[in-house]
Amino acid sequence: MYGRDRAGTSGLKQSLTEEHWSFMDGYGDLLIARGPTLTGPDDEDESTGSLHIVDLPDAESARRFAYDEPYYRGGVFESVLLYRFHNILGRTMWDFTEAVDGYDRFLLITLDSNAPAPATSKHTIVYGDLLALDDNTRLGWAAAIEAPTPEHAATLLPDSSHTEIHHWTFGGRPTPRP
Q1: Residue whose C-alpha is closest to residue 6's, from 72, 51, 63, 53
Q2: How high is the pLDDT of residue 122?
Q3: How confident is the model at residue 163, as a pLDDT?
Q4: Across all residues in the chain, what is the average pLDDT?
Q5: What's the maximum distance between 2 C-alpha atoms anywhere in the chain?
Q6: Spatial distance between the Cα atoms of 50 and 8, rounded to a whole number of angstroms
Q7: What is d(CA 71, CA 77) in angstroms, rounded to the nearest whole number?
Q8: Is the pLDDT reported for residue 22 higher than 60?
Q9: Burial call 97-128: b when 16+ CB within 10 Å, e when fewer
Q10: Contact by Cβ (8 Å): 107, 53
């Protein structure tokens, strides 16, 4: 799930953060990756959306997760991308606990069913195919990576005009995952 923030909702999002975290606590060990996308890599940058990759059993569970989520219910999101995610590398963001000096983190989303997979490296946090909720139709792919700049992140991509690159940071409570 990737919820795109509605313009002017940063205060609303902040007011819902504890409710959001409490909701996410209910999914604890099912989370693969989570966190906000930002206008840039600095702490003072504005949130542009929220990524949540969750290992759920079926499409109805995914819909329930997405549409019961407090940011969605509160009106923070302008839109929601909701797909099944085939976690090709089998990693989670918790496999990357130490930030790499000189690197930022990015979310890459390609909504092109014909786009080849990105090049993977030790800086690929998670990568997987995006599939339709109700069947195995491949719709694209998503990856969370570490790279020095957005331009460097783009060099890992196949040539696709359908790829988005977002600054991304790990989300959740300031305490580590149990």
Answers
A1: 72
A2: 86
A3: 83
A4: 90
A5: 41
A6: 15
A7: 7
A8: yes
A9: eeeeeebbbbbbbbbbeebeebeeeebbbbbb
A10: no
Per residue, what are the HEC states of the chain?
A: CEEEECCCCHHHHHHCHHHHHHHHHCCHHHEEEEEEEECCCCCCCCEEEEEEEECCCCHHHHHHHHHHCHHHHCCCEEEEECCEEEECCCCCHHHCCCCCCCCEEEEEEECCCCCCCCCCCCCEEEEEEEECCCCCCEEEEEEEEEECCHHHHHHCCCCCCCEEEEEECCCCCCCCCC
Specify the length of the chain in residues. Answer: 178
CB atoms within 10 A of CB 34: 22
d(C-alpha 23, C-alpha 19), whole Å: 6
Strand partners for 3 = 50, 80
Report residue 85's pLDDT band, with 50, 70 and 90 as the boundaries.
very high
CA separation (Å) from 46 to 7, 49, 73, 96, 144?
10, 9, 20, 23, 19
177 residue type, one letter: R
Q: First CA to last CA across the chain, in angstroms?
A: 22
